[in-house]
Design a protein that fits this description.
The protein has about 400 residues and is an alpha/beta fold. The strands form two sheets. It has an eight-stranded parallel β-barrel, surrounded by six helices. It folds into two domains: about 5-220, TIM Barrel; about 245-390, 2-Layer Sandwich (GTP Cyclohydrolase I, domain 2). The two termini are about 40 Å apart. The protein has 13 helices and 13 strands.
Length: about 400
């Protein structure tokens, strides 16, 4: 399950984050840069206050990539009693040497390398980190005024980072001026944690104090694990990783139609030999019937976002060549129906470059009855996936 990391500046904010349900308490000074470090005394005080209720991490600061400088600071923070030490890896020819210098410390403390999406992101560093005993890696942004994570790293590239971390045996995390609409877009990739600062603060100002209601809103958008021994390890209300909204949907409120219309993407598609080796424009039209949670939606907790559909299409397309339009439509339909509130989806896939008009396929898929009945009251899904019928077919 994905955990929620809350960045705090000391004891008082740590208590707020704990009350709001954060999984990891992360110490940093937001006024001192992307990875501004708090004093060692604040680290010790916060570790003592948290007292094992949650893991505590702390950043080393925006340090130059000098092996001995980074090693000394990381050791100082580790000795203050934190569970994780976060070290920024800025683009440098000395990055591997810095990782090697930290190898002895990695044997007794969990080290997390922080890479930056808005700088020269080098994912080839991941196996080097693993070789030197690092516990994990995360992607952040260095310039907080220069855009969010998804402005620099589109959603279809996120699974690549997550998978490469897993292949290297590293836990992985995502941060970078994340906002509430980003959460349902990032959860499908299955990161180990999502990190927040600005979204937790009053008016989303990262240098302001964190706000308990903002913390709770983020918490409600991220699935939580149930205590061991429960019938299900995951709260069914929170299973909708693609467009999550809290609480069991109420069928008496009816459905809304969420749609993506005339979404044109270059796709490697086609069964003919002349269609291989290049992309062609494909137009997607998707309409989803979504059960309402409330008749008075106020924020991302109450909606199914159309961003989920567009991100999903981009991610599917990024996997490589697809032989058939029908196969592409089925993949999109299955992705949308992963949200337990989606009752029905219509997907139209239209190839635009094979003649004077468009050709393609339109399919309709519905949620299985046993899945629909489990939505209210909450209960674990019984499987059964999808069923439906093609409304219109065309040559692929």
């Amino acid at each position: 399950m994905t955990k929620m990391l809350a960045s705090v500046n000391g004891v008082d904010e740590a208590e707020i984050a704990l009350t709001g349900g954060a999984d990891i308490i992360d110490l940093k000074d937001p006024k001192a840069g992307a990875l501004g470090a708090v004093t060692i005394e604040i680290v010790r005080q916060t570790v003592a206050t948290v007292a094992g209720r949650r893991p505590v991490s702390a950043v080393c600061g925006d340090l130059p990539m000098v092996p001995e400088t980074i090693r000394a600071k990381a050791e100082e923070i580790a000795d203050a009693g934190v569970d994780y030490v976060k070290i920024g890896f800025f683009p440098s020819g000395d990055a591997a040497a810095c990782a090697e210098a930290l190898a002895p410390l990695a044997k007794r403390t969990k080290l997390i390398a922080v890479l930056f999406a808005d700088l020269k992101l080098d994912l080839d560093l991941l196996p080097v980190l693993a070789k030197n005993g690092f516990h994990g890696a995360m992607i952040d942004t260095a310039d907080k005024a220069g855009g969010r994570l998804l402005d620099h790293m589109p959603p279809e590239r996120i699974p690549g980072f997550v998978n490469r971390c897993r292949e290297a045996g590293l836990i992985n995390g995502l941060a970078g001026s994340l906002e509430t609409p980003d959460i349902p877009r990032l959860l499908p990739s299955g990161p180990d944690f999502l990190g927040f600062r600005g979204a937790l603060c009053d008016q989303s100002q990262r240098t302001a104090s964190i706000d308990i209601e903002a913390v709770r809103q983020i918490r409600e958008l991220i699935p939580e694990e149930r205590p061991a021994g429960n019938a299900s390890s995951v709260d069914y209300r929170l299973l909708a990783a693609r467009g999550y909204s809290p609480g069991a949907a109420d069928p008496t409120l009816g459905t809304d139609k969420i749609f993506v219309r005339d979404f044109v993407v270059p796709v490697q598609i086609g069964a003919y030999s002349f269609e291989h080796g290049h992309t062609q424009k494909v137009c997607f039209n998707v309409t989803a019937d979504v059960l309402r949670v409330t008749n008075a939606p106020e924020d991302m907790r109450h909606v199914f976002s159309y961003d989920i559909i567009m991100d999903g299409i981009r991610t599917i397309v990024a996997r490589g060549h697809v032989q058939l339009s029908e196969a592409l439509a089925e993949q999109v339909a299955a992705l949308v129906l992963e949200d337990p509130r989606v009752m029905r989806v219509v997907v139209r896939v239209e190839k635009l470059e094979l003649g004077p008009g468009g050709v393609g396929v339109e399919i309709e898929r519905k949620r299985a009855k046993e899945q629909t009945s489990s939505l209210h009251p909450p209960a674990p899904s019984h499987g059964g996936g999808l069923h439906g019928r093609d409304k219109k077919g065309a040559s692929s």
